[in-house]
Amino acid sequence: MGEELEESRSMTDEKKPREHKPRDSRSRRPRDKRRRDNNQRDHNSRDNARDPSPEEITGDPELLGVLEVLGNGAAFIRRQEVGYTPGRRDVYVGPKLVRKYGLRTGDEITGIVGKKPKGGKSPPLVQLESANGHPADKIKFRPVFGDLGALHPNEQMFLECDRVVRRQKDYTNRVIDL
């Protein structure tokens, strides 16, 4: 009886060969890999897009909106018509342009927008004309606001003026001076 118990234990302690299970065609791994490949292809196609030739650029530069730079380096120009919130009419700005011109969140962008790509994506910014009213080639070398030092005034500015409202002198700016 003791021998039978030992044999049954030794059989359970031995590792049985694993059965090979065929992979289900709907498993998550291939789908995730496809999704990653598609995302990478979309990202690369926008990032590695060639610069358009002058013949391909059509249209006049227009004030587009305010730039919002995302964490991945890409950016979108938000429009005033929708309160600068994300919307369907946003313009895509690739990371290459953001790095090339040193663009930052909050810049007011003027430029030319290209044709809308397939797939319902945002149209790209084809040519940057200016940012915050300065030419595109000059904006990269502007100082970072956080690195600037404070300047303390050493003389008072008088805001009082001789403005007359309803035949009386306007003291609004004089109150501000106090």
Question: Structural class given helices, strands, pairing?
Answer: alpha+beta
Spatial extent as radius of gyration? 32 Å
Query: Could you give a short account of the major beta sheet?
Result: 6 strands, antiparallel
Q: Give the topology string: H per helix, E per strand.
A: HHEEEHEEEEEH
| Spans where pLDDT lies below 50 across 5 or more residues | 39-50
Separation, N- and C-terminal Cα atoms = 107 Å
| Helical content band | 25-40%
Relative strand content? 15-25%
In order across it, which strands form the biggest sheet?
A: 3-2-1-4-5-6
Overall geometry: elongated
Description:
The protein has helices spanning 2-13, 28-47, 95-101, 172-177, and strands at 62-69, 75-78, 91-93, 108-113, 125-131, 134-135, 164-165, 168-169. The chain is of the alpha+beta class and 178 residues long. It has a 6-stranded antiparallel β-sheet with strand order 3-2-1-4-5-6. A hairpin with a 2-residue loop joins strand 7 (164-165) and strand 8. The model is unreliable at 39-50 (pLDDT under 50).
